[in-house]
Design a protein that fits this description.
0% strand; elongated; 6 helices; Cyt_c/ubiquinol_Oxase_su3; mainly alpha
């Protein structure tokens, strides 16, 4: 009788934990929707302002496509490795999960480094600052906001790696891995739009 009661209490606690985790996942989806609205507004602003160069550098003069293609390849590869991390988690393979998350962090850091290098080159060698023209204000705001999101994702992922090393694969860490992977895929989708709308259309 006591064993049955204890088992029932355990099931109730497990159900409550699952419900709590589902609620947190739902909260993340709401956050993602607000992020879609944010990026949608930034893209709309860029499209309206991208021809207003104020006599300053134009997209054709500024954008160096080989470097931008490299950034794109690196970020898309990091999306693939984050997917491999989730696959490792579903297999219950903690070592594989952490290993692929570390690879994802390295690729993400490389992407941010290349993007910062691009910005520094624009400012120092081309004289293209955020205040040079409406086009550059919109460009730096849109691309910089995406870069900031990637940087936040990197810090989040690093923190999660340490948590996984301490606690292993649990209901909580599973939810966190799934959420960071979803966030990372979202940033990849946004970057595809950035690559197309900002860079490809800019040089065509």
């Amino acid at each position: 009788m006591a064993h049955t009661a204890a088992h029932g209490a355990h099931d109730h606690e497990h159900d409550h934990e699952q419900e709590h985790e589902s609620l947190k996942t739902f909260g993340f989806w709401i956050f993602l929707i607000t992020d879609v609205i944010l990026f949608g507004s930034l893209f709309a602003t860029y499209i309206v302002l991208h021809q207003n160069t104020n006599g300053g550098p134009t997209p054709e003069e500024l954008f160096k496509m080989p470097g931008i293609i490299a950034e794109t390849f690196i970020l898309l590869t990091s999306s693939f490795t984050s997917g491999l991390a989730v696959l490792g988690m579903h297999k219950g393979n903690l070592k594989q999960l952490i290993g692929w998350l570390i690879v994802t962090v390295i690729l993400g850091a490389l992407f941010v480094g290349l993007e910062l290098s691009e910005f520094i080159t624009m400012v120092n060698h081309e004289g293209a600052t955020i205040s040079t023209s409406a086009f550059l204000s919109a460009f730096f705001t849109l691309v910089g906001t995406h870069g900031l999101h990637v940087s936040v994702g990197l810090l989040w992922m690093i923190g999660l790696i340490f948590q996984l090393k301490r606690r292993g694969i649990t209901t909580v860490t599973k939810r966190k891995v799934e959420i960071i992977s979803l966030y990372w895929h979202f940033l990849d989708v946004v970057w595809i739009f950035v690559f197309t709308v900002v860079y490809l259309m800019g040089v065509m």
